[in-house]
Amino acid sequence: MAKKEDVALRASRGRSDKALGYRLKRLRSETMKPTSAPADQSAEQQDRSVSLELGWGRLLFAQTFETNEELAGALGDEGPARRDIAFYIRDPHVLLSMAPQELFLDPSHTYRLDLATYRPSRRQPRGFFIRRLTSEADANAVNAIYQSRGMVTVRPDFFWTNRDSRAITYFVAEDDQTGDILGTVTGVDHRRVFQDAENGSSLWCLAVDPQCRHAGVGEMLVRRLAEHFAARGASFMDLSVMHDNDQAIALYEKLGFHRVPVFAVKRKNPINEKLFTHPPADFDLLNPYARLIVDEAHRRGVAVDVTDAEGGFFRLSFGGRSIHCRESLSELTSAVAMSICDDKAVTRRVVERAGLIVPEQMEAVDDDEALGAFLKKHGRVVVKPARGEQGKGVAVGLETLDEMKSAIRIARELSDRVLVEACFEGEDLRLVVIDYRLVAAAVRRAPRVVGDGHKTIGELIEKQSRRRAAATGGESRIPIDDETRRCVAALGYELSSVLPEGEEVVVRKTANLHTGGSIHDVTEKVHPDLVKAACTAARAIDIPVVGIDLMVRSPGQPDYVFIEANERPGLANHEPQPTAERFVDLLFPRSGVKSAERALAPRA
């Protein structure tokens, strides 16, 4: 009996010793004192003055630099169009004193995940899977996601060169059905970089495509990287996150990350400018379409005066010239051109005379016979208000007279005149034309949800709508209205129906971003005849900035019909195409590439 008690006592003492050791180790890692090496390894074995090239800039490991003067000097060697980060700084106030005019304290928090206590999730990815980056196509897709999130892009060959690196790990999330890259994350193994005495690792560049329709992509990327480093025997995984990124912080804390007093310092440059200077007044109140242009102008040194943030109005001034804008609508667009675009029937007549192919159209009348004859001739029709934007009041694919009359009634709430058009089967293509040249082409896809076998279609729509709103700054939501109910009913379901797992349902026929649609870049694939049609339409209307909407069988085929022209096209969500850059080029040609290159040049 005494022997059993002795064994139990020793086991209990062993567990207590382990717990105490863990607490001491965590306490040591979270204090402001320099880090300590484990008992079996000397910190002297670490490499010195280590900086790791990551494509977008260098990651400087502050603990490997002997003095703050040396670290400040290394930061001063930052190249043009780069974003170097000095990480693991315990005394940032001292480092900043070395070069107060050049360096600033990054307004971010450092979070740490203890891999010894991390527990993988039993939940598996749905609709996508996580794998290594393996091709140049992957690299290009990752860059497109970086650009959509306002991050510094990386040369594709850099990804390719480091695809088998033991120090840098790239994971991507791929859609099961389409093969699209949905998200990416980068991991750094500190032990392989500089013989890290603490045996740590870190997470960088977590980004998910704003158009992604699957939930949990970011979480699964973080978990996959954590499990990768845990399998390698790393002690922890750190990351840096902006202090006001509440959504990301909530995710990290849910996964078990905790804050540690470790800081990052960066160099003052045009890329980092918004982190160390105050943005223009009311900048945060601007919508994403206005903010994108203001960001580009601010980066070039163009003066910005936000005149009405809620309406998206701002004034840009450069070199003695001042232009008032509302998002992408500027004083360079005439009132005549704007009025042509405002009335869809007028737009149709103007572009038809210029030689574009347009669908047959009639004005909606209170005559069932006339409506019925038009429907019988074309089989399926589109109803839309003659004036309006953002897809409001538009109903697509109507097949019965009752559906037509109901859609006409709804459209008349937005415009006195309502149009009925022949329905062209295919994809919705938006072509952004600036200065009468194509800048971006994108297919706009209607909102859809994928069943999980548990949630109703209504619940799936609400969940998808929240994700779209979060990804677009509140600009994209899926309305639950008569049009949504009609589309769902046409498929044999109701909003209360539970959708079988894996089944995909299109819940609206219109593909506008504001009604939950998603945008997919096809600029490199678009057929020359479609480009010619868009530029011809812009010249016919005589408008310098315009979004031309065509229905096409495929972006790579010449068949199309003209739908409408938008005098204030949204320039956001067209990554990686330089829509904001070309817009500011139009307004202020002398602020363009050469001026930007001079601004980003390294110090003499």
UniProtKB/TrEMBL annotation:
Domain ATP-grasp: from-to ranges: 348-597
Region (Disordered): 20-46
Keyword ATP-binding part of the UniProt annotation: yes
Keywords: ATP-binding, Hydrolase, Nucleotide-binding
Biased composition (Polar residues): 32-44
Pfam families cross-referenced by the UniProt entry: Acetyltransf_1
Residue span(s) of domain N-acetyltransferase: 128-278
Protein's name according to its UniProt entry: N-acetylglutaminylglutamine synthetase
Protein source organism: Nitratireductor rhodophyticola
Gene giving rise to this polypeptide: ngg
